[in-house]
Amino acid sequence: MKKKKINLRDLEPKKQQGEHSHDDGHNHSSPEEISNFRTYLPAIFSFVMLIAGIAIDYFDAFPFFKGWIRVVWYTVAYIPVGFPVIREGWKSIKNGDFFTEFFLMSIATLGAFALGEYPEGVAVMLFYAVGELFQNAAVNRAKGNIKALLDVRPNEALVYRDGDFVSVNPETVEIGEKIQVRVGEKVPLDGILLSEKGSFNTAALTGESKPDTIAKGDTVFAGSINLDGVIEIETTKEFKDSSIARILDMVQNATARKSKTELFIRKFARIYTPIVVFLAIGLTFLPYFFVDDYVFRDWLYRALIFLVISCPCALVISIPLGYFGGLGAASRNGILFKGASFLDAMTQVNTVVMDKTGTVTKGVFKIKEINSITFEEAEFMKYLMAMEEQSTHPIAKAILEYKADGSDYEATDVSEVAGKGLKGTVNGKTVLVGNKALMTSNGIEVPSETDGIVESIVMVSIDGNFAGYVTIADELKDDAHQAIKQIRDSGISKIIMLSGDKDSITRQVAKELNIDWAKGGLLPEDKLNEVEELKKQPETKVAFIGDGINDAPVLAASGVGIAMGGLGSDVAIETADVIIQTDQPSKIARAIKIGRSTRRIVWQNIGLAFGVKVIVLILGAGGLATMWEAVFADVGVALLAILNAVRLQRMSW
């Protein structure tokens, strides 16, 4: 049986739908608040009409409240909550799906009206509508906290045409044309660098935390961000074939392959609902053959009570209430689930695969080690910082964060040695700052101990002598070690790291964090292939954690995709099933625990609903329960389910 959403907003004027809230800091009602109020207005109206009608009936306050006036009163109370359900039931019947809860609710409540039990009919439908509002609120609350997808592909390209660079749509640029990219802009199409050199942030594409410096003739990928100077590129691919377009296409394909966990009630009701309908029909007509004083109206009333009691609406309500509690508890812990099914899916995960840069590391450079040979550390750093002040490279910025006492040194005659580093004069001494190739080309002997260093290394020579080196590394997040320990403690059997960063760096970080297995130097399609291979293993349920555009295809293909929401790319956030708002990897284990607690409470609610139903079904079939008792049985179940779900708000994980 398909379970659709009943949205009472369908009865509103269309212009009220889709309005957004803009918080201006004042106490005025926002359009979204007004829209939300109108969503609840039909249920509020029906509730007021029902209570007023029952009060008039009970106190007999108005003698004229009889006959057709009473029928019209309760009909008006019924329509706002009953019409959407009847309409969905009719749609389902036209689609060949007869046995839905919409059909059951419609038959039971309209039957109650036919028997003159108007308050019961309104009460049953009103309670069902309130349950649907709870369910819709859960989904809308989660969606309202999720960042919208922004297309990361550049929407313009500066192309050289008719002797000048003009701005055009990247889709109109042909292979072989020359484009210009300014500082801070994204490269719109794949191509070959025509300028002498360029520095690019490729973290979104490869996960590589270190900016990529390339020379003339090297390949530049679309989606890279130009960090240094205006550059020119000759395009080698059309816009639709660019690297960023290919990644977005993989996201769409992976999403299409992804199957989500069905909620229990949907599977159960396919079998349960037809049985209930036929039992109700039997309860109406079969007693004719076995009971001497058979009265059709009495047995029809019992059958309608049976339908109300056995209708899965209490289950349909109590289950979302449990998930609503779980979604709310997760939100308060900085974790956003995009739907109840992902709370369920999280409980099945036994293998966690994670990216490195931006997931367990901060994605920014920090000095890891200073090794000075011929000078005191502070003196050594003054020479190095004097040189790096002439550079705009991110590694230079990390070095300049070092705090040195005393007067600063000044570098003169600084020149750049392409692809190797800097050469200049500080305090009358010739200083070289750069990589091993710079040292070797100037006849400087480098200690063999530097060969085993996997981090980025800046070597320094002063007056022809090797003076020392500084290692620069992407810093681990404060809670990275705690996160891995907690993930293991939550019962995860295998933790894997896949990264676009260098394999040696990836493996070193994995070793430091006690991660089972790691692999670096991976392109987006390589990560996707690794996860697809894991998924082929029986009983393996994979959760992938990432933050970049390059992670989006894997986030979509994995059993549960988890994105870092603070610094993560918009595509990763949109593609993922779970968002960690605070960027803390330690929240991953908490998400698993919240999912398990939610599932446990949901099953408690299911057991409670079934237990109460069985008791009242027996009473109803024996004529010992009225429709009011059937309604209150459902109300009692829902109230207990609410109280049970509220426990999630008070739990700590």
From TrEMBL:
Show the coiled coil region(s): none
Cell compartments where the protein resides: Cell membrane; Membrane
Its domain of life? Bacteria
Does the record bear Transmembrane in its keywords? yes
Catalytic reactions of this protein = Zn(2+)(in) + ATP + H2O = Zn(2+)(out) + ADP + phosphate + H(+)
Task: Identify the GO cellular component terms for this protein.
Answer: plasma membrane
Query: InterPro entries attached here?
Result: ATPase_P-typ_cyto_dom_N, ATPase_P-typ_P_site, ATPase_P-typ_TM_dom_sf, ATPase_P-typ_transduc_dom_A_sf, ATPase_P-type_domA, Cation_Transport_ATPase_IB, HAD-like_sf, HAD_sf
Which Enzyme Commission number(s) are on file for it? 7.2.2.12
**TM segment ranges:** 39-56, 68-86, 98-116, 122-139, 271-291, 303-324, 601-621, 627-646
Supply one GO molecular-function term: P-type zinc transporter activity
Matching entries from Gene3D superfamilies are given as: Calcium-transporting ATPase, cytoplasmic domain N, Calcium-transporting ATPase, cytoplasmic transduction domain A, HAD superfamily/HAD-like
Q: Which PROSITE patterns match?
A: ATPASE_E1_E2
Stretches the record annotates as Disordered: 1-31
The P-type ATPase A domain is annotated at: 153-252
Biased amino acid composition, Basic and acidic residues: 7-31
What keywords are annotated for this sequence in UniProt?
ATP-binding, Cell membrane, Hydrolase, Membrane, Metal-binding, Nucleotide-binding, Transmembrane, Transmembrane helix
Q: Mention any Pfam family matching this sequence.
A: Hydrolase
Q: What family does the entry list? A: Belongs to the cation transport ATPase (P-type) (TC 3.A.3) family. Type IB subfamily.
Q: What is this protein called?
A: P-type Zn(2+) transporter
Question: Lineage of this protein's species?
Answer: Bacteria, Pseudomonadati, Bacteroidota, Flavobacteriia, Flavobacteriales
